[in-house]
Amino acid sequence: MLSGMRMRHIPIPQAIRESLRCFAAAFSAKKLTLQLYCVMIAKLKTQLSKGGIPVLDRFEKFSLAISEINRYWHKLAAEELAPYGLKAAHATYLTAMYRHREGITVPELCEECGKDKSDASRMLAILEEKGLVSKQTSGGSRYRGRMLLTDRGLEAAEHVCRRASLAVEAAGSDLTDARREDLYRSLESITQNLRRLSREGIPQE
């Protein structure tokens, strides 16, 4: 992935070659989660620095920014959900279900949150155990039934949505409306392009 980016004529140490190979393999196999991505980027950055190979500014800034945003958001979300006995990972499900207060099926929720069935089932089981969501069966199938927020679940979802809005507003307080619009438009474009690359693979040079 990086060998064609200003590194073509620089000898690459074996350790870095192996990191690049693992990175590409995970990406191609569609197993490159955000957490794994951040770990690999940090490792690769360290190896590049030790190997005397220049780190690309744009690549580095983007990777570190995504990593930091993810870390800080999880820290804030965890603090806000602690009173409900939940972790940061539950915030995504609560906010999605808050947008679908009439109920949402598990497949729809997976699509909405960008999660797989096993993760959704695990998170929903915890939310149900804590009395925050309930299931309505459909034709005897709980999987195809609709997930609904209980009164306490609605309270938790409203809390995290309200606090998230305040956090986003504070984080972007230095941005003008025009710059904020450009930022979201750019992030949407990058996300769509990465989604396409994850399906089709990275083009050959």
Q: Can you describe what's shown?
A:
- With 205 residues, this protein is mainly alpha-helical.
- It has two domains: 1-55, no CATH class; 74-200, Winged helix-like DNA-binding domain superfamily/Winged helix DNA-binding domain (Arc Repressor Mutant, subunit A, Orthogonal Bundle).
- It is 65% helix and 8% strand.
- The protein has helices at residues 14-28, 34-50, 57-81, 89-99, 106-113, 117-129, 151-171, 177-200, and strands at residues 104-105, 133-138, 141-149.
- Strands 1-3-2 form a three-stranded antiparallel β-sheet.
- Mean pLDDT is 79; it is low at 1-13.
List keywords for this structure.
3-stranded antiparallel beta sheet; 8 helices; mainly alpha; Arc Repressor Mutant, subunit A; disordered N terminus; 3 strands; globular; 205 residues
Secondary structure class reads mainly alpha
CATH class of the largest domain: Mainly Alpha
In whole angstroms, how far apart are the ends? Answer: 10 Å
Rg, nearest Å: 20 Å
* CATH T-level topology of the largest domain: Arc Repressor Mutant, subunit A
**Beta strands, count:** 3
Percent range of helical residues? 55-70%
Strand content: 5-15%
- Domains (count): 2
CATH architecture verdict of the largest domain: Orthogonal Bundle
The helix count comes to: 8
Shape: globular
